[in-house]
C-alpha cells in the first residue's frame, strides 16, 4: 500500500485517461505532480483532487510539443527536491485526414509529444529509479500501435513506437526493481477526438465500442501496481488486437479505414 510520501508525475493529467489516473494514485494517497499546457485547467484539477483526496498536488504548465519542455519539467521537479516514485506518460495527440492533406508542422509536434516527451521522461526517471532499485513507469500506448491507421497514419505510427519501445526497455530492466507497464486503450470517450478533428469519423460519431476513461485508467493502474508488462483495456479491444495478429495487414488497414470513414465523406484534413 502506498504511503503519503510517494509521488506520481503524470503528463496530460487534467483530462481524459490522465485525469482518471491521477484519481487512482490520489486514492492510494500518492502526492501528485501534474504536467499540462493550461495553467487554469491545472489549478482547477489540483483543487478538485486536494479537496477529494487530501493529497499534495504540484502543477507544472509546459507545452510538451517543445523539444526542451520535458528537460525543463525534470529540472523544475529536481529543484523542489521531490522524488518521483511513479511516472505516467499519458499526454498524446493525433490528427485526422489523409496524409497528403494533413499539416506537417502539426505532425512534427505530435511526434515530439507522443514519442520525444515519452523518451525523455522515461530515460531521466528510469535512471533515477534504477539507482534506487525501485519505481514504477506507466506508458500509455494504444491498440492503434498494433494496427495500420489510414486517416490517422502518424498517430498510429507514434503508438507503434511506444509499444515497441516499452517491450525493449522492459527486457533491458527485467528484475531490477522497476515496473514498466504499457497500457493499450482503444477508442475512449475523451477530448482527444476534438483536438484531432476526428469527431466526424464514423466510429467516433457513433461512439461504437467506446470506453470510459475511468475504466481504462483503473485497468492501467491495476496492471502497474501488479507489475504487469502490458494491458489491453477492454474485451473488444483485446479481440481486435488478437485478430490483427492473424489477418493480413492489408485487410486490417481496409477495415480500420472503413470504420473511421468521415460521415461527411470528406477525408481531407480540415
TrEMBL record:
Keywords: Oxidoreductase. Transmembrane segments: none annotated. One of its GO terms (molecular function) is oxidoreductase activity. Residues 6-190 form the Ketoreductase domain. It holds the Pfam family adh_short. It comes from the Bacteria. InterPro entries: KR_dom, NAD(P)-bd_dom_sf, SDR_fam. Belongs to the short-chain dehydrogenases/reductases (SDR) family. This is Short-chain dehydrogenase/reductase SDR. It comes from Hymenobacter swuensis DY53. The lineage of its organism: Bacteria, Pseudomonadati, Bacteroidota, Cytophagia, Cytophagales.
Amino acid at each position: 500500500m502506498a504511503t503519503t510520501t510517494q509521488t506520481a508525475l503524470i503528463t496530460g493529467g487534467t483530462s481524459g485517461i490522465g485525469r482518471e489516473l491521477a484519481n487512482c494514485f490520489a486514492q492510494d494517497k500518492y502526492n501528485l505532480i501534474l504536467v499540462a499546457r493550461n495553467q487554469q485547467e491545472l489549478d482547477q484539477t489540483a483543487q478538485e483532487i486536494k479537496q477529494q483526496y487530501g493529497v499534495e498536488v504540484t502543477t507544472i504548465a509546459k507545452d510538451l510539443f517543445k523539444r526542451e519542455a520535458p528537460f525543463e519539467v525534470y529540472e523544475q521537479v529536481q529543484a523542489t527536491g521531490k522524488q518521483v516514485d511513479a511516472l505516467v506518460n499519458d499526454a498524446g495527440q493525433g490528427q485526422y485526414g489523409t496524409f497528403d492533406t494533413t499539416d506537417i508542422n502539426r505532425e512534427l509536434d505530435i511526434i515530439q509529444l507522443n514519442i520525444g516527451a515519452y523518451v525523455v521522461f522515461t530515460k531521466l526517471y528510469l535512471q533515477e529509479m534504477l539507482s534506487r532499485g525501485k519505481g514504477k513507469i506507466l506508458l500509455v500506448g494504444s491498440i492503434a500501435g498494433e494496427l495500420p491507421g489510414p486517416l490517422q497514419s502518424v498517430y498510429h505510427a507514434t503508438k507503434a513506437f511506444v509499444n515497441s519501445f516499452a517491450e525493449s526497455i522492459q527486457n533491458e530492466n527485467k528484475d531490477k526493481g522497476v515496473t514498466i507497464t504499457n497500457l493499450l486503450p482503444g477508442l475512449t470517450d475523451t477530448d482527444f477526438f476534438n483536438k484531432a478533428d476526428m469527431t466526424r469519423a464514423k466510429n467516433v460519431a457513433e461512439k461504437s465500442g467506446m470506453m470510459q476513461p475511468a475504466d481504462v485508467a483503473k485497468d492501467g493502474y491495476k496492471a502497474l501496481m501488479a507489475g504487469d508488462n502490458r494491458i489491453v483495456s477492454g474485451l473488444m479491444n483485446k479481440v481486435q488486437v488478437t485478430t490483427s495478429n492473424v489477418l493480413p495487414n492489408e485487410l486490417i488497414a481496409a477495415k480500420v479505414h472503413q470504420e473511421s470513414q468521415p460521415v461527411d465523406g470528406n477525408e481531407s484534413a480540415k
